[in-house]
């Protein structure tokens, strides 16, 4: 495996923040594989369109998650065709994308996700008129769920 | 390679026309994120379910793309409309190419 100088720097930077968590080693590995950043994923989802903050999309997440391995969350956006979920501080920022068909009674879904550390979980919904709304919820994570 | 993958789905057996029903699905799967190391320090390759779809009589209810941030044993809960008697079809797509399916009949009275 190639270890770039940048990867090592990034890893040591996260090491400073994360003390002895094995996450730092993992972050270094993630840098070796092409992983889309949160901004890239959002740009791909919106096609460069403006994203406004709004309450048209609702994101329900616990304020404190003791175990980052399973954090229950739910999103709802009335009339949305798609909802994108992102956790930017995870080694791979993507979480899920929901596309709703004609038989979805509500444009809502609930699932359980992994969070590597305390961070904002972001939901972006594509509404029926083609505009994008964004909301975020901060989740404090006691034990990181970095794939473990 | 995921083993013992078992889908579990909870769907009501009967519904009235156009009733909104809540569906819960769970599938046992390790969802190996590709971030973990084994005891020799080697990265365990990613092996997750990357897509999950729900259809009713061929019409789409939900199509979701999953990333490694989805927890082990992926769980989903959502609401669907039932316009007529028919069958819900659930499909999970694994990274390794496997496809897991489940189907549930709903009677509209």
Automatic annotation (TrEMBL), chain A:
Q: Name one Pfam family in it.
A: SoxY
Q: Which organism is it from?
A: Paracoccus gahaiensis
Give the source's domain of life in one word. Bacteria
- Signal sequence extent: 1-27
Instruction: Give the taxonomic lineage as stored in the record.
Output: Bacteria, Pseudomonadati, Pseudomonadota, Alphaproteobacteria, Rhodobacterales
Which keywords does this chain's UniProt record carry?
Answer: Signal
Q: Which NCBIfam families match?
A: SoxY_true_GGCGG
Name recorded for this polypeptide:
Thiosulfate oxidation carrier protein SoxY
Annotated ranges, domain Ig-like SoxY:
43-146
Automatic annotation (TrEMBL), chain B:
InterPro entries in UniProt? Ig-like_fold (IPR013783), Ig_E-set (IPR014756), SoxZ (IPR030995), SoxZ_dom (IPR014880)
Gene3D superfamilies in the record, alphabetically?
A: Immunoglobulins
Q: Which residues form the Sulphur oxidation protein SoxZ domain?
A: 10-102
Superkingdom of the organism of origin: Bacteria
Check the record and name the Pfam families matching this protein.
SoxZ
Report the protein name in the record.
Thiosulfate oxidation carrier complex protein SoxZ
The gene from which this protein is expressed is soxZ
């Amino acid at each position: 495996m190639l270890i770039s100088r940048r990867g090592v720097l990034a890893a040591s930077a996260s090491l400073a923040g994360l003390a002895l968590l094995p996450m730092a080693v993992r972050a270094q590995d993630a840098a070796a594989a092409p992983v889309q950043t949160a901004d890239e994923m959002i740009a791909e989802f919106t096609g460069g369109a403006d994203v406004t903050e709004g309450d048209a999309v609702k994101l329900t997440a616990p304020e404190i998650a003791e175990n980052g391995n399973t954090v229950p969350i739910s999103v709802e956006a009335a009339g949305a065709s798609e909802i994108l979920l992102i956790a930017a501080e995870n080694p791979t920022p993507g979480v899920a994308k929901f596309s709703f068909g004609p038989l979805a009674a509500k444009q809502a879904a609930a699932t359980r996700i992994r969070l590597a550390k305390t961070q904002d979980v972001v939901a972006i919904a594509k509404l029926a008129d083609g505009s994008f709304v964004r909301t975020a919820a901060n989740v404090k994570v006691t034990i990181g769920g970095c794939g473990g | 390679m995921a083993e013992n993958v078992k889908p579990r789905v909870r769907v009501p057996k009967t519904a009235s026309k156009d009733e909104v029903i809540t569906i819960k699905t769970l599938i046992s799967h390790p969802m190996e994120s590709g971030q973990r190391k084994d005891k020799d320090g080697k990265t365990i390759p990613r092996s997750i379910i990357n897509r999950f779809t729900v259809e009713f009589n061929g019409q789409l209810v939900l199509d979701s793309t999953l990333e490694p941030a989805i927890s082990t044993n992926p769980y989903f809960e959502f609401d669907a409309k039932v316009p007529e008697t028919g069958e819900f079809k659930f499909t999970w797509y694994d990274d390794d190419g496997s496809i897991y399916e489940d189907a549930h009949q709903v009677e509209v009275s």
